[in-house]
Fold this protein.
Amino acid sequence: MARVIAKISSEGYACVIREDDDGRVHFIADADIDADGANGQNGGKAAYRADDSGSELLANGGMKIVAGKVICAKPWARSIVILDADNEPKVFPGGIIASTTWYRHPDKASSDPAAYVDADTVPYIVVPPIIVQATAGIVRGCKARVSYKGKSVDCVVADRGPASKIGELSIAAARAIGLPSSPRNGGTEKAEVEYELWPGVAAPGFVLQRS
């Protein structure tokens, strides 16, 4: 048996989120590519760079360049990047602007770019708040899996998206299942990707973190 947690209508289709009796949560959705947390910490490409040459556009992170300096063009940008003393994005060595994820490695400071889950090298998925609110088990850091056209990859729930959006996975997860993995133009607009997660069951190498 499965109960319906929620229905989210997004981008031209309705996504039904279900929870099985054994606690597995699952849904089928499209796939947007999340680059957050990709700060070059594992040798991969950084999501955001001061010259806009990162894997993701500064504009998609709510930022822009003004007089040679990257600033937050949207207020919400300040919630996804590490800020400097002037409350604008901090530029780290190599021109990297470090982005954050909902999950932070507990042994590292919030100001450390390596504290966050690297979208370029770690398969992860993004969930809307309703899943966190409607399930008994802890979601942040829990085991997950995505599947597409016969390919699957084990993941971690590492990021949380807006309430009205569903269907998002990291660069590494997309790459592993054969989806175009560029945050700028990858993913799929079709509801053809299966997402599964197990609240209360930690993903290997991660710990469960309460909201």
Q: What stands out?
A: The two ends are 27 Å apart (CA to CA). The longest helix spans residues 171-177.
